[in-house]
Specification:
mainly alpha; 4 helices; flat
């Protein structure tokens, strides 16, 4: 059971860094340090952030995978990761992108993702 919690915790950390790497740069221009940064600079910064994503993602998958003594099969790991990705993204976008709104169709989409988790874990 502990391996499951460790896996999920590492996946959350991984997805925080992934979201910052993929979407955080869209807010960099508002920071004085990055207002004149070119695309190559932004790519390198995002790449540096993505390194931390992998530092958490790889151990999460190794610890969580049932072939390594973890509680999850490959499909379960992927679905968990996708749900965490979307939750982290929604929280990130609501905090950093005030002009984005969470609508009813997004909520319905999340319900379908939760159903996907249910069916993936169903024996």
């Amino acid at each position: 059971m502990m391996k499951g919690y460790i896996t999920i915790g590492l996946l959350i950390l991984s997805n925080i860094f992934m979201t910052l790497a993929w979407y955080g740069h869209l807010k960099f221009k508002e920071l004085k340090w990055f207002e004149n940064a070119g695309l190559i600079t932004i790519v390198l910064i995002s790449w540096g952030l993505a390194l931390f994503e992998y530092c958490f993602q790889v151990p999460a998958n190794r610890i969580g995978y049932e072939g390594n003594g973890g509680p999850f099969n490959l499909m379960q790991l992927k679905v968990i990761q996708e749900v965490i990705t979307l939750v982290v993204f929604v929280v990130f976008s609501m905090i950093f992108f005030k002009n984005e709104t969470f609508r009813w169709n997004h909520a319905i989409g999340f319900c379908f993702l939760i159903l996907a988790v249910y069916f993936i874990f169903k024996k």
